[in-house]
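Form 7-S
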Amino acid sequence: MPVGTFRVCLVVLTAIVNHPLIFPRENGTVPENTEEIIQKMKEREETLRLEQLRLEQEIAEQEAIQKALEKSAEVVKETKEEKVRWDMWTALSMVIFLLIELWRQDFQEGIWQDTGGEEDDMAVLGKAFKGVAFPDKAVLASFYEKRILGTTGDMARMREMVEGFADDLLEALRSVCNRDADMEVEDCMGVGSMYENWRVRKPFVCDLIVPFAPPEPYCFRSQTWCSGDSFPPAEQGYGTIKVCRADEDVTGCICDKTKLGEDMLCLLHSQANITRPSSEMEDLLCFKNTQYLDADQVMKWFQIAVTKAWNRISHKYEFDLSFSLLDSPGALKIKFRSGKSIAFNLTPVVQYENSDVYFISHFPRSSLAADLPSSTHWFLTFAVYERRFIQLVSKTLPANACHVSCLQILSFLHGKQCSLTGPSGLTNYHLKTVMLHLLQARPSQDWAPEKLEARLQDMLKFLEKCLHEKKLYHFFIGNGKVPAELGFPIIFQRAEPLNLFRPFVLHRDVYRKTVDTFHEMLRNMTALINEYTVHIPLAQTNGIHKESF
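Output:
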């Protein structure tokens, strides 16, 4: 073992001694390109130095970019903090503004409910009343007796004649209709100024509504703007009517709302019971390819049915019957051989659930009203409840109360002014709405006959305020103070108030015309009343005033 180790060490030592780089031989040669190697080393060194400078420059640029990013982040952070603070202040300002606006509206809406004395009322008269000479009680009494009281008897005779003829016409209509396929027509009802005894403008026109229902096994399912689904502002006051089978549960199953596919079947409804848009639905007066009742189709059907009914009974009467207005499909005119005529409106309606609210196919339009959203949207009329409310309140008022007299005088003045200066955005329905609001706000004793002048001023002041604010709310919609005796549907009481003057915001030219007409009416009021007033000695005016009421 030691001998082997010694041999290995000897071999290693011999190799080291004979290595040419450690102990070069005497005949070895030194490389001749030493200078070339040194030059390359210097070039390499210069290259490394330049590379080092480039890297240092890049590092400096990176550091500058990093600092710029950090600075930008700080600026963005500060901006966000400022924006958050600004958004908070903006939101707070908006909340304060909304609260102030709500308070202002509530305050203004409550002004007319003030039941203070007449002197307080006169203190809030607007600018339009400055310099206006208001007729005194004696002049108003004489005007009312001469111009308005004489029309009451004429209205009663006309109502009786029109109602009797309409009943006969509808009975004939039922006989010419197919009971298995056509709509079922019910008895007509009188609504509006002729049946509330305040119509003063001629020609007198009776408004009759005719409820109708679909044939079995179908029924109507209605939906209004306040039923829960969102309706745009332009469709407030409207609703839709869906024609369904009586055994079809449209609310309890989703098969009518979801496409199940050809290979799927609803377990609750068989294929035969599903009402689908088809020619059958069009025969039921629905809009094409829908289940929604079409007002235009209904009026076409009704006009054809009325024409057939008149042909059946025309031999019994000594006058002619015709449709009088193209833009009002239910307008009829009776023409006597003497040349005289009587106009009345016979309009089909659909009952809303089990109430006396009705969907009306066509409603008298004014320059203020917008076009219907579509022929499947039906306007809701509360005319039956309005008539009942007036009758109910009249029972609590003093004898010969002046509420109807005020409305008649105001309607007469506005009608005369429009005949002089042209139509305006105000209608008799707006004037009646003003009276309904004041009837609810004022105590019963304020409507005594001797307070005609004061209450007429109240109506003009209230109307002026509504025109100024462009706000006149529907009397029933959103009114939680409707008497329970009327049985008015609670869904409409809880709805948002409906502003009848909302179109004034959209139609500035109509609004300007309406305001100008109102101011002109105030200025001409005394002259218009004196024109129809019997001029008598002052000593007799008190007697006339007492007799007229």
